[in-house]
Specification:
The protein is an alpha+beta fold. It contains 6 helices and 4 strands; from the N terminus they run ααββααββαα. The longest helix has 11 residues. The radius of gyration is 16 Å and the shape is globular. It starts with a helix and ends in a 15-residue tail after the last helix.
Length: 115
C-alpha cells in the first residue's frame, strides 16, 4: 500500500502521504480544521492560516490589523472585496487559495497584491 511505501521511504511524491491523511488541497476543498473564515465577493471561505501566511498580504494583516480578530479560535475577516473595487473576481481569488495550498497557478498573479 502507499502507506507502507511511505514508511519505507517510497520514491514518488504521492507515496509521501498515508492513505487516510488529508492533503493540503483536500483541506482547501473541505475546510476541515479551518482556523480562518474569510468573506469576499459575497462568499465565505473556510481556510487555514498556515497556508495563507505564504502571502505577504495575509502575513502582514495577521501580524497587524487582524491580530485580535479571533472568535472561538477562528480568525473571522471580511476582505471587503467586490469586483468593482478590486479589478479581479472570485475566480482569481480562488486561484490564489489554490496556489497557497500548493496547487500551482497559471502565469502571472490573478489577484494582484493578494497572491
Amino acid at each position: 500500500s502507499r502507506a507502507d511505501m511511505a514508511l519505507r521511504g517510497g520514491s514518488s511524491q504521492s507515496d509521501m502521504y498515508f492513505e487516510d491523511e488529508l492533503r493540503p488541497l483536500d483541506l482547501l476543498q473541505t475546510g476541515e480544521l479551518a482556523d480562518v473564515e474569510v468573506a469576499a465577493f459575497g462568499h465565505s471561505f473556510r481556510l487555514h492560516r498556515t497556508y495563507l501566511l505564504r502571502s505577504p498580504f495575509f502575513r502582514n494583516r495577521f501580524k497587524g490589523p487582524w491580530a485580535n480578530l479571533q472568535r472561538d479560535g477562528v480568525f473571522c475577516v471580511d476582505l471587503g472585496f467586490d469586483e468593482s473595487s478590486t479589478g479581479f473576481g472570485i475566480d482569481a481569488l480562488k486561484s490564489c487559495w489554490q496556489y497557497f495550498y500548493g496547487g500551482g497557478r497559471a502565469g502571472g498573479s490573478p489577484a494582484p497584491g493578494v497572491c
